[in-house]
Write a structure and sequence with these properties.
The structure is a homodimer.
Chain A: E1 5-10, H1 40-49, E2 57-62, H2 66-72, E3 81-84, H3 90-102, E4 109-114, E5 118-119, H4 122-138, E6 142-147, E7 158-161, E8 171-178, H5 183-192, E9 195-205, H6 206-216, H7 218-225, H8 236-246, H9 252-257, E10 263-268, E11 272-273, H10 278-283, E12 293-294, E13 299-305, E14 308-311, E15 316-323, E16 325-330, E17 333-338, H11 345-354
Parallel strand pairs in A: 1-2, 1-4, 2-3, 6-10, 12-14, 13-15, 14-16
Antiparallel strand pairs in A: 4-9, 5-11, 6-9, 7-8, 7-9, 8-10, 16-17
Chain lengths: 361, 361
């Protein structure tokens, strides 16, 4: 295992689209949403252990998730859990990890990725990341992973690469980044053949990253550069508290990727999904004969089709006469919702919040 | 309060039509099914306390329900809980109570009724039972309560009375008993105007009842007559164990009412229902603006109409897009079922039993 290989897992996200399975104190990345016995964070960590020693894997998360990270990844080195005092998007998150790593190992090459995505073809992931790591060791490149698109998805960002480069080179120069396009545009992207989905995963040397922050986000670079005497010491938390309060709220894509001219992409058809919704989970999961996704042998269905049924394992459910529904019974909350209305779930959660019933969220 | 007035509450029934709200160890009579703060048994007991001292109210139930009866009716005298070792229908149940009472008070007049019905107009109930009690004190009559029918219900039994009797007399002679008729017949019953619903409630002196058992069910009479030296003693339970094992399984209606010629009926338009199904409960309950019957402020509905939603009070539910459904989340079980399929619930319960998951029943 290469001593200079590092990984940064971003695990600070929150969201209500998987309520009531996900909760404010247990968002998606901490859930075994596929029912495989591993949470999404645990899957991400395990995938990266093929490249990195535990000492070289960092998890950046919100301060409130410190305990759950330790619980789910007991192998993690305590000081490798980077606690964000507030959420400032991916820019400051990646800067913090980058500057911390470079203070320990200036020759580090780092793979940065979200903690809450699924990757079904791990062999492709491993092969692609290996290629990218090797290239990033020797070249001043930020290498993103671009997912072979299977449909004109309007919920994802797209990466366009330059066709005119040497076509035998699997690492292609990036031309444009486009956030969630309208359907018409997405259809054109798919037709053109030079657009890939942006999985938010990239590989780079920390030197290249620091240069990029200096060039494109000098304020952020300056803030974290001042931390050199604090990283790995008792004063790190205090320093980070102040640093974050000064940071702008900015994404890595907007702050650096879209501006830098050394961004590359390597195509990876690795069964990737960010499973951002119940229906995405449904699409990515194996269904039973009635096309239902059920999580327990104690679920009895009659005239139920194309639905997600998920209950506490110690309960029984009898469900009759539903088509295209989401039924989630989790702890102190029950959700029943047509799958084509799932975009309303966040509003339903808002209403509960407004009624000051936060205990259910 | 008349010292000779007694009441017998039959509380041994079981059933699965209200699963998962009702369970094998907590059938309907022990549930606050209307959400009024009183279980059906407690309502029945309270209604009868207007006529009888606690010492004169007997509850006949299955041996396994002894504790729950004590818990729900703490005022009840322990020896007034008559424990049936097995279920032999209403005939032996009423015989046991009758013979026990006559051994203590030969002049007793008794009101016998199920524990799991609702009566919305208690003033009518009180007035009608008072009339019947007074009459039964002086006449050798079994006086049933007949409910003014409001629809051609095929799930109830009917009592036909003789029109030719003195029409000013509100206590009318019974002509026929008919169990659950076909719809065509039920329509004729309603048209004819001399049919009432059989509520399974009757009033009689115990002397008259003993005479009736002697005449129409001599085997049963003989069995319980032999208990004279055991009632109110330590050997009562042993005696009853043997008595029940010898008894036929026979209903009071079939064994006595349909055969005796001293059966009368008094009409009572008292807002009665045996609420045997979820839809009957729905029909008998006040609905909200969306025509939903909900039991908690923590139920959020969106595009939900004409449905019953019932959840544990400490939970929250978000329910979207249901019309004419039953949703019951109770303890370790969840039921979602179209209201017009509620007759299947007992089959669903059978299936769970067959799978040896009795803990959920």
């Amino acid at each position: 295992m290469n001593e200079n290989y590092y990984a940064v897992i971003m695990a600070g996200g929150v969201g209500s689209r998987f309520w009531p399975l996900s909760r404010e104190n247990k968002p998606k990345q901490f859930l075994d949403i596929l029912g495989t016995g591993e949470t999404l964070l645990q899957q991400t960590y395990r995938r990266l252990r093929k490249f990195c020693k535990p000492e070289n894997i960092l998890i950046v998360t919100h301060a409130s998730f410190n305990d759950i990270v330790k619980e789910q990844v007991p192998e993690i080195i305590s000081k490798n859990i980077l606690l964000e005092p507030m959420r400032k998007n991916t820019g400051p998150c990646i800067a913090y990890a980058t500057y911390k790593i470079i203070n320990k190992d200036p020759n580090a090459v780092v793979a940065v990725m979200p903690s809450d995505h699924i990757i079904l073809r791990e062999d492709v992931f491993t092969k692609t990341v290996t290629t990218a790591m090797k290239q990033a060791e020797v070249d001043d490149k930020i290498i993103t992973l671009g997912i072979t698109p299977s449909r004109p998805e309007t919920g994802y960002g797209y990466i366009q690469y330059k066709q005119n480069e040497d076509s035998s080179d699997e690492i292609k120069k990036v031309k444009t980044f486009t956030e969630k396009p309208q359907l018409e545009l997405a259809l054109k992207f798919i037709d053109s053949g030079d657009f890939l989905w942006n999985a938010g995963i990239f590989i780079s040397s920390v030197k290249t990253l620091v240069n990029s922050f200096n060039k494109h986000l000098p304020d952020v670079a300056n803030i974290f550069n001042n931390g050199s005497q604090h990283y790995y010491t008792e004063s790190e938390n205090n320093f980070i508290e102040k640093a974050y309060s000064m940071c702008p709220n900015i994404s890595m894509d907007y702050g650096i990727m879209e501006k830098a001219d050394n961004v590359f992409v390597i195509e990876a058809d690795m069964g990737w999904s960010d499973i951002g919704t119940w229906s995405a989970l449904y699409d990515n999961s194996e269904k039973n004969k009635q096309n239902n996704l059920v999580n327990s042998e104690n679920i009895y269905t009659y005239d139920v089709n194309n639905s997600i049924i998920r209950i506490d394992k110690n309960k029984v459910a009898v469900i009759q006469g539903l088509e295209n529904y989401i039924v989630i019974d989790e702890g102190d909350a029950l959700l029943i919702c047509r799958m084509d209305k799932e975009q309303n779930i966040k509003n339903y959660v808002e209403k509960i919040k407004k009624d000051k019933k936060d205990i259910y969220l």
